[in-house]
Every structure is written in structure tokens, then in C-alpha cells.
TrEMBL record, chain A:
Species this chain originates from: Litoreibacter roseus
GO cellular component: ATP-binding cassette (ABC) transporter complex
Domain ABC transporter: residue ranges: 2-233
Coiled coil is among the record's keywords: no
Gene Ontology process terms (BP): putrescine transport
Any single Pfam family the record assigns to this protein: ABC_tran
A GO MF term: transmembrane transporter activity
Record keywords, A-Z: ATP-binding, Nucleotide-binding, Transport
Name recorded for this polypeptide: Polyamine-transporting ATPase
Domain of life: Bacteria
PANTHER family per UniProt: SPERMIDINE/PUTRESCINE IMPORT ATP-BINDING PROTEIN POTA, SPERMIDINE_PUTRESCINE IMPORT ATP-BINDING PROTEIN POTA
TrEMBL record, chain B:
Species this chain originates from: Litoreibacter roseus
Signal peptide extent: none
Biological process according to GO: transmembrane transport
Membrane topology recorded in Swiss-Prot or TrEMBL: Multi-pass membrane protein
Primary location recorded for the protein, binned into one broad class: membrane
Residue ranges annotated for the ABC transmembrane type-1 domain, each copy included: 60-248
Protein's name according to its UniProt entry: Spermidine/putrescine ABC transporter
Amino acid sequence: MIGLTNVEKYYGDYHALRGITANIPEGEFFSLLGPSGCGKTTLLRAIAGFEHLSGGSLTIDGQDMSRIAPHRRPTNMVFQSYAIFPHLSVAENVGFGLRKRKDINRDARQRMVDEALDMVGLSGYGSRRAHALSGGQRQRVALARALILKPKVLLLDEPLSALDKKMREQMQAELRRLQRQIGITFVLVTHDQEEALIMSDRIAVMFDGQIAQMDAPQTLYRRPSTRRVAEFIGVMNFLPAARVGDEMFDVAGLGKAFIDRSQVMNGAGTDCVAGLRPETLSILFDGSDVPDHSFEGTITDRAYYGDMTYYDVVITPGTAPVTISMKNRAGRPILEPNTKATVAWDPRSLIIFGA
Amino acid sequence: MKGGWLRIYAIVYLIFLYLPVALLPIFAFNDGTIIAFPLQGFTAKWFLELAAIQALHSALWNSLFIALVTATLSTLLAIGAARASTRYKFPGKAPIMGAIMLPLVLPEIIVAVALLVVLLQLGIGLTSWTVIAGHTLICTPFAIAILSSSFQGLDASVEEAAIDLGETRWGAFRTITLPLVAPGIISAFLIAFTISLDEFIIAFFLTGAEPTLPVYLWSQLRFPTRIPAVMALGTLLLLASLIILSIAEYARRRGIARTGGKDSGGFL
Ligand SMILES: Nc1ncnc2c1ncn2[C@@H]1O[C@H](COP(=O)(O)OP(=O)(O)O)[C@@H](O)[C@H]1O
Ligand SMILES: [Mg+2]
């Protein structure tokens, strides 16, 4: 559907996109995730046609886009600022793109606008002035305005970042539902890893104008290919490790364990780093059996989140603590700092990175 | 007591500023040729006398023509400059914009003399068009200042959104940007028009055989009997300027209200 091959973009001397290659199939919810300034917007705007490529190629539906002006591309965009036309009514905003379509008469246009407003939950808002709407409503108008043209690709630039938390969560679910319902390709730009994980079929993690990893959310979370990706998505503990056999690793404070090849990332030599997510570690409360793989440590800090408690546990005095997250269950105590704890871990959820 | 002194200061300030101007309409309706108190009685004959002076009429038409052309040129130039300065980054932008805005603070007499020297060197005769050139030079910075604030208040992505929805570049500018900055354009046009209409120094130096209204007005001051009529003419000019500037400010504010923006200055 969207084919990006070695896409390059320079702003003067600044190298904003460095050899981006990706294929986004039809109907996929694809996200570009990365820290601010990594080039997400630039890539999205290049797909929309607002940025010229300095190199490489872009195809949509098999058609080369290099000579297609933005107003003739089968893409529509939801801008970060929503870009609502402030002097037009909601209905005029939503119907804006239809004015150019000679095959659609007034009545049909009116009906399509009503349908589009209905789809985003704004029935009856047609005659309102656009600049009097709330942030969430503007967002919906921008969405209806883009979707009414039935694009092959919908491009969204941080569409939810200006909304408050409740509204954002609601819109995340709604966007996902809309995308399934109409079945077109969505390309979402976000710097919020949680948002990307929740919504996407596939995520491209970008750093410094390059795609660091492109995978389904679960793969990305469980098998991040580099430390930087692992750090950007969720929380991960890093411990120094050494390869002591073909698939045998000695992890500082944890001891030796057999680690499957699939968990060893490219670039891991003799000296390497072991990564463990907080939820793959668990504190053993009194009475539990001690499993094969466990270690002793001292709790140095804890943060209570209601449903979860996060503990910092130091294994060897003088080293950095590891973070452990525990579900708060009935009968499970909240441990205080300076308590000794036995922690179970599982070699199957450990990842080995290059040092 | 501090507030008291400030209040007195403000009142004295306003009196100094507007008393001379207030004398204009007073003597315009005074039934006497000598500009002095006590007043002689009420009359409108000076206004009627104005209607009879042929030279005045041609000066008026000349001024209106110059103001109209100047306002049109300045506004068109300013639309381009304001859009470029608020939307694009380009090398040398700061010095270029500085140079364009400089006539705003340059003494008019310097501009006038410099233009006169250049025109004479080039062998270009003085006509209404030379006045238009001079006026465009000084009116454009005002128009740019007004339009820059209009363009600044505009989200750059609305134009792209229109393109994204199928408009061409020009179509997007026409259907989205122009309506949104229209109040600014009207305001800039009217202010340029007023400045040109009232301007004296450049017109005095660069005018050819046909004087503008302020130049004609000045030439009549030599004839004491004409002074009341000059007062009447001044009153009319003052009134016209006030009305035009009020419309300009109304247009600017309405534009802000229409797009739900915040007021960020303007000249009035
Ligand atoms: N028009 C431009 N001119 C110069 N540099 C730009 C321009 N647009 C973006 N950049 C630079 O390119 C980099 C990537 O920008 P962007 O794609 O907006 O990042 P993101 O959306 O990931 O935050 C940034 O460092 C930014 O400063
Ligand atoms: Mg961005």
C-alpha cells in the first residue's frame, strides 16, 4: 500500500530522514513512534506531499508519488493543530473537500456531511461555528473532514496530544474502532509509547531520522532489538552480563542461566547487558516456594499506584537497584523500605543486548 | 496624591494634543476672516465657498486618485511581504525586512529629497505617479505591520489542510487565507489610503503641475482671506480621516472576533 524505499530528507545541512524503508499494507494501523525531533512529522508530511524527498522513493497503491502534488494524493491528514477553518461552520469544514467534486450534488453532499458527523459523534453540530468548539470536538471535525473524502490512507500527526487524559483514552478507543470499521490504512505519529502500543497493528520506532525497529506491539515490547528501543518503550532494568558458554550467560547478581538464541539480540559479544522488565520479576511473599531462579535483595524504595506497587531492590550493595512491579492483591502486604526480599525471575523473559 | 498628579498630567497632555485640532472646526464655522476670539457668529458659508473653487476640486480628485492607487499598491506589496516574513525562512530575512520597514522611522523630508534627486537624475518628470511612488514607499511599512499581525494569527496548517483536502495552492490561498486576513487587508488599505491622503512633505517635493489637497491647502495659507476656507477644508479632511480610520479599526477587530483569536495590537 505505502512503500517507502531509502527515503532521505535534508533541511539544508540537517539530515532529518536517513534511509527510511518500510512497507505499510492496506488496512494496517501503523504508528511512527519516537522522541520529539526524530523526524516523525517530516516523514508523515513527506507521505502527504508537503515535503519533497531529497532521495529514495515513495509509492502509494503501487503508484510513484514523486510527481503527484499533495492535493492530488489519495491521502488525507489530521493536523496536530487540527487546522480547523475558523471562519467556516462545522458542516462547511467537513464538506470542504467535497466542493471540488462535480459528481456530488448539494443533497448528496449534505447527506455525506451528516453521515461523517454522525460517524464521529457530532450529529447536530453542523451549523456551529468551528472556532467555538472544544479541543475534543475540533479533533472530531478534523477527522470527519478527512474521512469524508474516503482516502486510501489517513495520516494523523499527534492527534491526541492536546487532549486531557480521559478524553485521550476515549479517543484512542474510538480511533481504533473507526479504523477497523472503515478498514483503510492509518499512519499515526505519536511520541507516547503507551498510545502506540494500545492502538497499532505495527509500530516503527524512530531515532534521529532512522527506523530503529519496526514490529508488532508485543514483539516490540518483549523483544526490543536495542537498549535504546527497550528504554523508550516501557521500563527495563539493565544488568551487566557475560557470555560464558554458547547459550549460557552470567548475569550480575542473578547468576548463570541458559538463554535461548531468540532472546539474544544482534551485537551481543562476550560482554553484554541483560534486560528485564519490572513485571517479569516478582517478590516472593512468605510461604511461597522458592523457584529455580531467584535472588536476595533489600528494598530501598517503593511507589504505590493503587493497582500496582513498584519496588526498588538492591541486589549487591553499591550497585543500582532493579525495579520490580507487583500487582496489589488481597492479602498481599505492601512492603516497607529496608525489608529483605526474595525475588524470582525467569530466564525466558530476559533479553541480552550488546554492551 | 500620585494618582492625582498623573491625572492632571494626562488631562494637560490631551489638551495640548487636541486643542489646536479642536480650533479647526470652531473657526471653520466662524463668521469672520480673522482667526481670533471672540467668535463672530455661526456660518456655513466657508464650506459653500469651498464648493466654488475649481482648483480645489482638481486637487481633491488628484489626492483621491493618488491615495487610491497608493493604497492598492501598498496593500498588494504588503500582502506578499507579510506572508513571506511570517511564513518562510530565507537567508537575509532580517536585514531585508528591516530595510522595508525603515521608511517608518526615516524623516520624510530625507525620503522626499532623496527621491527628488533620483528622479531628476533619471530625467523623470514630476507627476502624480512620482507622488504615488513616494507614498507607496512610506505606506507599505504600515500596511506590512498590520498584515503581519493578521498572518501571524493564522495557523500555518490551515492552508495546508485546504491543499490536503483537494485545493490547489492558489485555491487554498483564495478560499482560506484571503478570507481570514481580509479584515487585515481592508484595515491596511484604509490606513494606507488615509496616510497618502494627508501626506504633505513628499507630495510637496514630488508633485508636478497638479497639487494634492494638502499641498493646495498649504498654498492657500498665503492669502489671509482664504484662511477660513482652509479651516473648513481642514475640518472636512479631519472628519474623513477619522471615519476611515474608525472603519479600519472596526474591520481589524471584527476579523479577530470572527476567528476567535486574541487581540495583539494594531495601530489604534
Ligand atoms: N522546515 C524545516 N526546516 C528546517 N528544519 C526542520 C524543518 N522541519 C523540521 N525540521 C527539523 O527536522 C527535525 C525533525 O522534525 P520533525 O519531523 O518535526 O520531528 P518530530 O515530529 O519527530 O518531533 C527537527 O530537528 C526539526 O528541527
Ligand atoms: Mg512532530
